[in-house]
Amino acid sequence: TESQRNEGEVLTMYEQWLVENGKNYNGLGEKERRFKIFKDNLKRIEEHNSDPNRSYERGLNKFSDLTADEFQASYLGGKMEKKSLSDVAERYQYKEGDV
Amino acid sequence: LPDEVDWRERGAVVPRVKRQGECGSCWAFAATGAVEGINQITTGELVSLSEQELIDCDRGNDNFGCAGGGAVWAFEFIKENGGIVSDEVYGYTGEDTAACKAIEMKTTRVVTINGHEVVPVNDEMSLKKAVAYQPISVMISAANMSDYKSGVYKGACSNLWGDHNVLIVGYGTSSDEGDYWLIRNSWGPEWGEGGYLRLQRNFHEPTGKCAVAVAPVYPIKSNSSSHLLSPSVFKLVVLFVFQLISLALL
Question: How far apart are CA B145 and CA B135, in angstroms?
Fold first, then answer.
């Protein structure tokens, strides 16, 4: 687990992850900042996956060095307004005994 | 109702899981996915449709390109616009320039719909019935799903309000993890189960897990109103006309 790994091992993981995901940070201090986020996300993943009663697995992916705010700003864009739900139809209204 | 539905097995889902990139265009992908599905169900032809047309051209309602939107308004746009072109001719760039190029697309190949309707809200049984008939666009609360990898998601999320537009393409029951909705996402095939999410179904709140039953919408398309001049339909029509002419000449 992340807690059992030393900093160097996690950094090696991160370097490999950067290559696999085609990412490259040139900004001053940007890579270090991203590495810290990566470590936090890795910890969250491994804590979750260590629960024997979990119903789902978490894992590293291309979002793994983004903060929650960055992820939400870039990848979620659904807008929901009650006025858009005014055309409720009976077509798929479930009735007892439907086959 | 069937115990399991998977529209992928019936050819109503484009096999390649699409990738929205760093653009809040989930609504466009949910919309095209739903229209691709109902078009295949009514015409038998699966055509991958253009999200970029929606991003660039659907700017008048409540859709704002990469800044977000909803499939419900995209359906309205597609109906008013007289259809939507394929992504073969209007490919995805993920760029939000609002420069609509659809008018330059010299093609008669558009997929049309007659409009859209809303599934009775906060009712997972009605949603189940709807999914048994066609893929359904829904909003889910997905802020905590960035690192989902596999299994039936039962983690933290808002059960009242969705922030991400996705497409339900089926449902089923896992022996270990219980009932689930099969959801097609637009974060590429590397995310989740090959680009798909299984989300807890038959939740104890009427809104559904992660608000899945709060805003379910679908496009409607009747057989008779198809304006799809697809190559196979076109060939059949041409063959038929030629045969009629041949018979007349004989």
Answer: 21
Task: Kindly report, residue by residue over B24-65, the tens digit of the pLDDT.
Answer: 999 999 999 999 999 999 999 999 999 999 999 998 778 999
> B62 vs A59: CB contact, 8 Å cut-off?
no
Q: What is the 3 state secondary structure string of A50-70?
A: CCCCCCEEECCCCCCCCCHHH
Two tokens, residue B207: 């809104």
Test the A interface: residue of B114, B125, B147, B179 with most A CBs within 10 Å:
B147
Residue B3 in this model has a pLDDT that exceeds 50: yes
- As a whole number of angstroms, the distance between CA B39 and CA B14 comes to 12
**What are the beta bridge partners of residue B153?**
B199
Strand pairing partners for B139?
B165
User: Residue B54 and residue A59: Cα distance in Å, rounded?
Assistant: 32
ipTM given for this complex: 0.92
